[in-house]
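Customer ticket, subject: "Can you confirm the structure for DUF1963 domain-containing protein?"

Message body: Hello, I'm evaluating your service for our small team and ran a test protein. I'd like someone to confirm that this is what the system normally returns, since I don't have a reference to compare against.
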Amino acid sequence: MLPAYTVEVGTEPLVRPARNSVGGWPFLDQAQDWPECFCGERMALFFQFDIPWDLEPFGGNHLLVFHCRAHNDASDPQLADGRLVPKYWDAPQPPYPAPFWRVLIQSRGALPAPEAEPSLCALPLALRPFVDTPVGAQTFKVGGTPSWAQDPEYYRCACGADLVYVCQVPEGMDFAVYPGQPEQPYSVRADTYWLFLGNEVYLLACPARCDPAAVWPVNQH
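Agent reply: Thanks for trying us out. I re-ran your input and got the following:
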C-alpha cells in the first residue's frame, strides 16, 4: 500500500497564519506573487498544506490551490505532440484566454503572506495517516491511490516528465465563505464556493519540478 493521509477540515477559525489551512495566509516562496486570474481579480486561496515527508517525490514541499471566485468551470487539457503544451499552467482554457486557477508547489521555506485570504473562511487542516484501498478511497486526501470517477487520466509534462498523482478533492466539497462575499457562479449555495464546478479533482504534478506551477488539475464527475 502507498502511504496516504486524509485531509480533515477543522471548525475553529484561524486567527494567525497556519501552514495547513483552508483559506488563511498563503505560504509563498519569496519570488512568488499571489496569483491573479486573467480577469484581473486576485485568485482565492482554497487550501494549502505541507506534503508529508514520506510522500515522494514532493514530500516536505508546500501545496497551494488557488481558484478564481468569478470563474467557476472545469479544466480542459491542451495537448501538443502527446504532451501538455508548454507552460500549460498559463495556456488558454477556451473560451478563456488563460486558466482561472493556479496550483503551486512551493519550498519548505515558504513564508506567509502579510494578508489573509478575504473570501474563504480560514480553517485549520489536519493530515492523518490511513491505509488506502487498492482502488483508492474517495475522500479529501494526499498520497495513496486516486479514486477515479471515470477512466484514469495520465499526462506528460511539456518538459517530458510523466505527471504523478499528488492529491484528491472529493466531488461536491463545499468551502465556506465569509458573510457578504459575492455569490459564485454555478454554485449551489450562496455561502460556499466550489473548485472546478464541484467536480472530483485530481492534482497531478511534474516530478522534475520544472516550474512551481507545473501541476495539472484533472476534473471528473
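A couple of notes from the result: The mean pLDDT is 96. DSSP finds no helices and 16 strands in the chain. Feel free to reply with more questions.
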